[in-house]
Amino acid sequence: MPIMEISIIPVGGETPSFSQAVKEACQVAQNQGLKYQVNAMSTVVEGNLDQLMSVASNIHRTSLQNGNNRVITHITIDDRQDQEMDMETQAAKINGDLS
Amino acid sequence: MPIMEISIIPVGGETPSFSQAVKEACQVAQNQGLKYQVNAMSTVVEGNLDQLMSVASNIHRTSLQNGNNRVITHITIDDRQDQEMDMETQAAKINGDLS
Amino acid sequence: MPIMEISIIPVGGETPSFSQAVKEACQVAQNQGLKYQVNAMSTVVEGNLDQLMSVASNIHRTSLQNGNNRVITHITIDDRQDQEMDMETQAAKINGDLS
Amino acid sequence: MPIMEISIIPVGGETPSFSQAVKEACQVAQNQGLKYQVNAMSTVVEGNLDQLMSVASNIHRTSLQNGNNRVITHITIDDRQDQEMDMETQAAKINGDLS
Protein backbone atom coordinates (compact mmCIF):
# COMPACT_ATOMS: atom_id res chain seq x y z
CA MET A 1 0.00 0.00 0.00
CA PRO A 2 1.42 3.43 -0.87
CA ILE A 3 2.22 5.92 1.88
CA MET A 4 1.80 9.69 1.49
CA GLU A 5 3.42 12.59 3.27
CA ILE A 6 1.55 15.90 3.01
CA SER A 7 2.28 19.36 4.32
CA ILE A 8 0.18 22.44 3.69
CA ILE A 9 1.41 26.02 3.94
CA PRO A 10 -1.08 28.92 3.83
CA VAL A 11 0.72 32.06 2.60
CA GLY A 12 -0.35 35.64 3.31
CA GLY A 13 -2.26 35.03 6.55
CA GLU A 14 -1.70 37.61 9.38
CA THR A 15 0.19 35.10 11.56
CA PRO A 16 3.23 32.89 10.95
CA SER A 17 1.34 30.07 12.70
CA PHE A 18 -0.62 27.57 10.60
CA SER A 19 -1.36 24.76 13.08
CA GLN A 20 -5.07 25.48 12.46
CA ALA A 21 -4.63 24.57 8.76
CA VAL A 22 -2.83 21.36 9.76
CA LYS A 23 -5.65 20.42 12.18
CA GLU A 24 -8.19 20.98 9.40
CA ALA A 25 -6.09 18.72 7.14
CA CYS A 26 -6.10 15.95 9.74
CA GLN A 27 -9.88 16.36 10.09
CA VAL A 28 -10.23 15.76 6.33
CA ALA A 29 -8.16 12.55 6.60
CA GLN A 30 -10.24 11.47 9.61
CA ASN A 31 -13.51 12.16 7.76
CA GLN A 32 -12.31 9.96 4.89
CA GLY A 33 -11.50 7.18 7.37
CA LEU A 34 -7.80 7.09 6.60
CA LYS A 35 -5.05 6.25 9.10
CA TYR A 36 -2.57 9.12 9.62
CA GLN A 37 0.31 10.20 11.85
CA VAL A 38 1.35 13.79 12.56
CA ASN A 39 5.00 14.75 13.07
CA ALA A 40 6.63 18.15 13.49
CA MET A 41 7.00 18.75 9.75
CA SER A 42 4.19 16.86 7.98
CA THR A 43 1.34 14.39 8.17
CA VAL A 44 1.82 10.81 6.95
CA VAL A 45 -1.26 9.04 5.57
CA GLU A 46 -1.96 5.42 4.49
CA GLY A 47 -4.36 4.40 1.73
CA ASN A 48 -4.53 3.26 -1.87
CA LEU A 49 -3.47 5.71 -4.59
CA ASP A 50 -7.02 6.95 -5.31
CA GLN A 51 -7.73 7.50 -1.60
CA LEU A 52 -4.45 9.39 -1.12
CA MET A 53 -4.95 11.65 -4.14
CA SER A 54 -8.56 12.33 -3.08
CA VAL A 55 -7.62 13.26 0.49
CA ALA A 56 -4.72 15.44 -0.76
CA SER A 57 -7.05 17.26 -3.12
CA ASN A 58 -9.65 17.78 -0.38
CA ILE A 59 -7.03 18.99 2.11
CA HIS A 60 -5.77 21.54 -0.43
CA ARG A 61 -9.29 22.67 -1.38
CA THR A 62 -10.44 22.92 2.26
CA SER A 63 -7.57 25.25 3.12
CA LEU A 64 -8.50 27.58 0.25
CA GLN A 65 -12.18 27.47 1.26
CA ASN A 66 -11.23 28.36 4.85
CA GLY A 67 -10.06 31.80 3.75
CA ASN A 68 -6.42 31.38 2.78
CA ASN A 69 -5.61 33.45 -0.29
CA ARG A 70 -2.66 31.26 -1.28
CA VAL A 71 -1.92 27.66 -0.33
CA ILE A 72 1.19 25.63 -1.17
CA THR A 73 0.71 21.88 -0.71
CA HIS A 74 3.64 19.45 -0.76
CA ILE A 75 2.79 15.80 -1.40
CA THR A 76 5.20 12.85 -1.54
CA ILE A 77 3.96 9.39 -2.42
CA ASP A 78 6.12 6.30 -1.79
CA ASP A 79 4.72 3.26 -3.58
CA ARG A 80 6.23 -0.23 -3.71
CA GLN A 81 5.03 -3.25 -5.72
CA ASP A 82 7.50 -5.86 -4.52
CA GLN A 83 6.60 -5.60 -0.83
CA GLU A 84 3.74 -4.47 1.40
CA MET A 85 4.34 -1.16 3.24
CA ASP A 86 2.68 0.54 6.17
CA MET A 87 3.61 3.46 8.39
CA GLU A 88 4.54 1.45 11.49
CA THR A 89 6.71 -1.09 9.67
CA GLN A 90 8.60 1.56 7.70
CA ALA A 91 9.55 3.52 10.82
CA ALA A 92 10.20 0.38 12.89
CA LYS A 93 12.70 -0.92 10.27
CA ILE A 94 14.87 2.08 11.11
CA ASN A 95 14.13 2.68 14.78
CA GLY A 96 14.38 -0.99 15.65
CA ASP A 97 18.04 -1.18 14.58
CA LEU A 98 19.11 2.14 16.08
CA SER A 99 17.75 1.75 19.65
CA MET B 1 -4.99 28.79 -11.97
CA PRO B 2 -2.87 26.53 -9.75
CA ILE B 3 0.58 25.46 -10.90
CA MET B 4 2.09 22.05 -10.10
CA GLU B 5 5.66 20.87 -9.92
CA ILE B 6 6.13 17.10 -10.19
CA SER B 7 9.18 14.88 -10.07
CA ILE B 8 9.18 11.11 -10.24
CA ILE B 9 11.96 8.85 -8.97
CA PRO B 10 11.93 5.13 -9.82
CA VAL B 11 13.94 3.24 -7.15
CA GLY B 12 15.61 -0.14 -7.63
CA GLY B 13 16.10 -0.01 -11.40
CA GLU B 14 19.50 -1.26 -12.74
CA THR B 15 20.63 2.23 -13.78
CA PRO B 16 20.89 5.56 -11.91
CA SER B 17 19.33 7.22 -14.97
CA PHE B 18 15.58 7.84 -15.02
CA SER B 19 15.15 10.25 -17.96
CA GLN B 20 12.94 7.58 -19.57
CA ALA B 21 10.49 7.81 -16.63
CA VAL B 22 10.47 11.62 -16.96
CA LYS B 23 9.74 11.39 -20.71
CA GLU B 24 6.86 9.03 -19.98
CA ALA B 25 5.55 11.54 -17.42
CA CYS B 26 5.66 14.35 -19.99
CA GLN B 27 3.83 12.09 -22.45
CA VAL B 28 1.03 11.64 -19.88
CA ALA B 29 0.73 15.44 -19.48
CA GLN B 30 0.74 15.83 -23.28
CA ASN B 31 -1.97 13.16 -23.68
CA GLN B 32 -4.14 15.04 -21.17
CA GLY B 33 -3.64 18.24 -23.16
CA LEU B 34 -1.94 20.13 -20.34
CA LYS B 35 0.77 22.78 -20.79
CA TYR B 36 4.08 21.82 -19.12
CA GLN B 37 7.71 22.90 -18.90
CA VAL B 38 10.66 20.64 -18.11
CA ASN B 39 13.65 21.87 -16.11
CA ALA B 40 16.68 20.01 -14.77
CA MET B 41 14.95 18.96 -11.54
CA SER B 42 11.22 18.68 -12.25
CA THR B 43 8.32 19.26 -14.60
CA VAL B 44 5.99 22.23 -14.09
CA VAL B 45 2.37 21.78 -15.24
CA GLU B 46 -0.60 24.18 -15.54
CA GLY B 47 -4.24 23.20 -15.06
CA ASN B 48 -7.12 23.34 -12.59
CA LEU B 49 -6.83 21.33 -9.39
CA ASP B 50 -8.73 18.30 -10.71
CA GLN B 51 -6.64 18.19 -13.90
CA LEU B 52 -3.38 18.48 -11.91
CA MET B 53 -4.31 15.73 -9.44
CA SER B 54 -5.47 13.48 -12.28
CA VAL B 55 -2.26 13.92 -14.30
CA ALA B 56 -0.14 13.41 -11.15
CA SER B 57 -1.98 10.20 -10.37
CA ASN B 58 -1.61 8.95 -13.95
CA ILE B 59 2.09 9.84 -14.05
CA HIS B 60 2.66 7.87 -10.83
CA ARG B 61 0.58 4.89 -11.99
CA THR B 62 2.23 4.82 -15.45
CA SER B 63 5.69 4.58 -13.91
CA LEU B 64 4.64 1.60 -11.80
CA GLN B 65 2.98 -0.07 -14.81
CA ASN B 66 6.18 0.42 -16.84
CA GLY B 67 8.03 -2.03 -14.58
CA ASN B 68 9.41 0.05 -11.74
CA ASN B 69 9.13 -1.84 -8.45
CA ARG B 70 9.15 1.33 -6.36
CA VAL B 71 8.26 4.88 -7.36
CA ILE B 72 8.54 8.04 -5.24
CA THR B 73 6.55 10.97 -6.64
CA HIS B 74 6.98 14.52 -5.32
CA ILE B 75 4.16 16.95 -6.05
CA THR B 76 3.98 20.63 -5.09
CA ILE B 77 0.85 22.67 -5.85
CA ASP B 78 0.90 26.47 -5.63
CA ASP B 79 -2.63 27.88 -5.71
CA ARG B 80 -3.65 31.52 -5.41
CA GLN B 81 -7.18 32.99 -5.16
CA ASP B 82 -6.36 36.70 -5.12
CA GLN B 83 -4.55 36.75 -8.45
CA GLU B 84 -4.30 34.74 -11.69
CA MET B 85 -1.08 32.70 -12.09
CA ASP B 86 0.60 30.99 -15.01
CA MET B 87 4.04 29.52 -15.59
CA GLU B 88 5.40 32.28 -17.83
CA THR B 89 4.28 35.16 -15.62
CA GLN B 90 5.61 33.59 -12.43
CA ALA B 91 9.10 33.08 -13.87
CA ALA B 92 9.07 36.44 -15.69
CA LYS B 93 8.31 38.30 -12.43
CA ILE B 94 11.69 37.14 -11.17
CA ASN B 95 13.78 36.99 -14.33
CA GLY B 96 12.50 40.34 -15.57
CA ASP B 97 13.95 42.19 -12.59
CA LEU B 98 17.24 40.32 -12.46
CA SER B 99 18.39 40.63 -16.12
CA MET C 1 15.21 26.74 16.87
CA PRO C 2 14.71 25.61 13.26
CA ILE C 3 13.49 22.09 12.52
CA MET C 4 14.61 20.08 9.48
CA GLU C 5 13.00 17.22 7.64
CA ILE C 6 15.37 15.14 5.50
CA SER C 7 14.84 12.16 3.23
CA ILE C 8 17.50 10.48 1.16
CA ILE C 9 16.87 8.34 -1.91
CA PRO C 10 19.70 6.29 -3.45
CA VAL C 11 18.92 5.67 -7.15
CA GLY C 12 20.28 2.79 -9.23
CA GLY C 13 20.95 0.29 -6.42
CA GLU C 14 19.95 -3.34 -7.13
CA THR C 15 17.08 -3.27 -4.63
CA PRO C 16 14.06 -0.97 -4.16
CA SER C 17 14.81 -0.96 -0.42
CA PHE C 18 16.89 1.85 1.05
CA SER C 19 16.35 1.45 4.80
CA GLN C 20 20.12 0.92 5.10
CA ALA C 21 20.73 4.43 3.71
CA VAL C 22 18.22 5.87 6.19
CA LYS C 23 19.93 4.06 9.11
CA GLU C 24 23.26 5.49 7.99
CA ALA C 25 21.66 8.97 7.89
CA CYS C 26 20.39 8.57 11.46
CA GLN C 27 23.87 7.43 12.52
CA VAL C 28 25.30 10.69 11.10
CA ALA C 29 22.76 12.73 13.11
CA GLN C 30 23.57 10.67 16.22
CA ASN C 31 27.32 11.19 15.73
CA GLN C 32 26.75 14.95 15.54
CA GLY C 33 24.77 14.79 18.80
CA LEU C 34 21.54 16.06 17.28
CA LYS C 35 18.03 15.04 18.39
CA TYR C 36 16.03 13.32 15.63
CA GLN C 37 12.80 11.40 15.06
CA VAL C 38 12.19 8.86 12.30
CA ASN C 39 8.79 8.48 10.64
CA ALA C 40 7.68 6.38 7.67
CA MET C 41 8.62 9.03 5.10
CA SER C 42 11.49 11.09 6.53
CA THR C 43 13.69 11.96 9.49
CA VAL C 44 13.05 15.13 11.50
CA VAL C 45 16.08 16.77 13.14
CA GLU C 46 16.49 19.67 15.60
CA GLY C 47 19.42 22.04 15.72
CA ASN C 48 20.55 25.53 14.76
CA LEU C 49 20.83 26.37 11.04
CA ASP C 50 24.57 25.62 10.82
CA GLN C 51 24.13 22.26 12.58
CA LEU C 52 21.23 21.29 10.31
CA MET C 53 23.04 22.22 7.09
CA SER C 54 26.16 20.41 8.26
CA VAL C 55 24.31 17.19 9.14
CA ALA C 56 22.35 17.35 5.84
CA SER C 57 25.57 17.73 3.89
CA ASN C 58 27.21 14.85 5.77
CA ILE C 59 24.17 12.60 5.31
CA HIS C 60 24.22 13.27 1.56
CA ARG C 61 28.00 12.77 1.28
CA THR C 62 27.95 9.57 3.39
CA SER C 63 25.38 7.98 1.10
CA LEU C 64 27.54 8.69 -1.94
CA GLN C 65 30.64 7.37 -0.15
CA ASN C 66 28.76 4.16 0.75
CA GLY C 67 28.58 3.17 -2.90
CA ASN C 68 25.42 4.77 -4.24
CA ASN C 69 25.97 6.08 -7.77
CA ARG C 70 23.19 8.63 -7.51
CA VAL C 71 21.60 10.17 -4.42
CA ILE C 72 18.64 12.55 -4.25
CA THR C 73 18.32 14.35 -0.91
CA HIS C 74 15.20 16.31 0.04
CA ILE C 75 15.61 18.87 2.83
CA THR C 76 12.92 21.12 4.30
CA ILE C 77 13.81 23.69 6.96
CA ASP C 78 11.08 25.39 9.02
CA ASP C 79 12.47 28.38 10.90
CA ARG C 80 10.54 30.81 13.10
CA GLN C 81 11.79 33.99 14.77
CA ASP C 82 8.69 35.01 16.69
CA GLN C 83 8.40 31.82 18.74
CA GLU C 84 10.53 28.92 19.93
CA MET C 85 9.92 25.61 18.13
CA ASP C 86 10.82 22.01 18.87
CA MET C 87 9.72 18.67 17.46
CA GLU C 88 7.54 17.60 20.38
CA THR C 89 5.67 20.89 20.73
CA GLN C 90 4.97 21.17 17.00
CA ALA C 91 3.40 17.70 16.81
CA ALA C 92 1.61 18.07 20.17
CA LYS C 93 -0.08 21.29 19.00
CA ILE C 94 -1.88 19.20 16.40
CA ASN C 95 -2.27 15.84 18.11
CA GLY C 96 -3.38 17.38 21.39
CA ASP C 97 -6.48 18.94 19.83
CA LEU C 98 -7.42 15.94 17.68
CA SER C 99 -7.38 13.12 20.29
CA MET D 1 28.37 18.14 -10.50
CA PRO D 2 25.30 18.08 -8.23
CA ILE D 3 22.27 20.19 -9.10
CA MET D 4 20.04 21.82 -6.47
CA GLU D 5 16.46 22.97 -6.59
CA ILE D 6 15.49 25.51 -3.92
CA SER D 7 12.23 27.24 -3.09
CA ILE D 8 11.68 29.63 -0.22
CA ILE D 9 8.32 30.45 1.35
CA PRO D 10 8.01 33.32 3.83
CA VAL D 11 4.98 32.70 6.09
CA GLY D 12 3.04 35.38 7.95
CA GLY D 13 3.77 38.35 5.69
CA GLU D 14 0.86 40.69 4.89
CA THR D 15 0.68 39.59 1.25
CA PRO D 16 0.36 36.19 -0.46
CA SER D 17 3.07 37.34 -2.90
CA PHE D 18 6.69 36.40 -2.22
CA SER D 19 8.43 37.19 -5.53
CA GLN D 20 10.57 39.70 -3.60
CA ALA D 21 11.95 36.84 -1.44
CA VAL D 22 12.70 34.82 -4.60
CA LYS D 23 14.53 37.79 -6.17
CA GLU D 24 16.61 38.15 -3.01
CA ALA D 25 17.43 34.42 -3.21
CA CYS D 26 18.61 34.78 -6.81
CA GLN D 27 20.73 37.76 -5.77
CA VAL D 28 22.45 35.57 -3.17
CA ALA D 29 23.22 32.93 -5.83
CA GLN D 30 24.50 35.68 -8.17
CA ASN D 31 26.71 37.14 -5.44
CA GLN D 32 28.24 33.71 -4.87
CA GLY D 33 28.94 33.43 -8.61
CA LEU D 34 26.76 30.37 -9.14
CA LYS D 35 24.79 29.58 -12.31
CA TYR D 36 21.03 29.39 -11.73
CA GLN D 37 17.73 29.15 -13.61
CA VAL D 38 14.37 30.37 -12.35
CA ASN D 39 11.14 28.55 -13.20
CA ALA D 40 7.57 29.10 -11.98
CA MET D 41 7.99 26.91 -8.90
CA SER D 42 11.66 27.01 -7.87
CA THR D 43 15.22 28.05 -8.66
CA VAL D 44 17.72 25.50 -9.97
CA VAL D 45 21.38 26.08 -9.08
CA GLU D 46 24.63 24.39 -10.17
CA GLY D 47 27.72 24.00 -8.02
CA ASN D 48 29.65 21.52 -5.90
CA LEU D 49 28.02 20.25 -2.69
CA ASP D 50 29.73 22.80 -0.41
CA GLN D 51 28.77 25.70 -2.70
CA LEU D 52 25.15 24.51 -2.89
CA MET D 53 24.78 24.05 0.87
CA SER D 54 26.40 27.44 1.50
CA VAL D 55 24.11 29.28 -0.94
CA ALA D 56 21.04 27.45 0.45
CA SER D 57 22.00 28.46 3.98
CA ASN D 58 22.59 32.08 2.94
CA ILE D 59 19.30 32.23 1.01
CA HIS D 60 17.43 30.97 4.08
CA ARG D 61 19.25 33.32 6.46
CA THR D 62 18.81 36.35 4.18
CA SER D 63 15.04 35.84 4.07
CA LEU D 64 14.88 35.80 7.88
CA GLN D 65 17.11 38.89 8.10
CA ASN D 66 14.84 40.71 5.62
CA GLY D 67 12.02 40.70 8.13
CA ASN D 68 10.15 37.45 7.60
CA ASN D 69 9.05 35.95 10.92
CA ARG D 70 8.89 32.43 9.54
CA VAL D 71 10.62 30.94 6.50
CA ILE D 72 10.20 27.45 5.06
CA THR D 73 12.99 26.46 2.65
CA HIS D 74 12.73 23.37 0.43
CA ILE D 75 16.00 22.04 -0.98
CA THR D 76 16.46 19.06 -3.30
CA ILE D 77 19.96 17.94 -4.30
CA ASP D 78 20.47 15.50 -7.19
CA ASP D 79 24.00 14.15 -7.21
CA ARG D 80 25.46 11.56 -9.60
CA GLN D 81 28.91 9.91 -9.49
CA ASP D 82 28.73 7.82 -12.65
CA GLN D 83 28.11 10.70 -15.03
CA GLU D 84 28.59 14.48 -15.26
CA MET D 85 25.38 16.52 -14.90
CA ASP D 86 24.46 20.11 -15.64
CA MET D 87 21.21 22.01 -15.88
CA GLU D 88 21.09 22.34 -19.66
CA THR D 89 21.92 18.70 -20.40
CA GLN D 90 19.40 17.34 -17.88
CA ALA D 91 16.52 19.34 -19.39
CA ALA D 92 17.66 18.75 -22.98
CA LYS D 93 17.65 14.96 -22.44
CA ILE D 94 13.90 15.22 -21.96
CA ASN D 95 12.94 18.14 -24.18
CA GLY D 96 15.08 16.93 -27.08
CA ASP D 97 13.09 13.69 -27.42
CA LEU D 98 9.67 15.23 -26.91
CA SER D 99 9.82 18.11 -29.45
UniProtKB/TrEMBL annotation, chains A, B, C, D:
Belongs to the UPF0045 family. Residues 4-93 form the Thiamine-binding protein domain. InterPro entries: MTH1187/YkoF-like (IPR029756), Thiamine_BP (IPR002767), UPF0045_domain (IPR051614). SUPFAM superfamilies: MTH1187/YkoF-like. Gene3D superfamilies: 3.30.70.930. It comes from the Bacteria. One of its GO terms (cellular component) is cytosol. Coiled coil: none annotated. This is Thiamine-binding protein domain-containing protein.
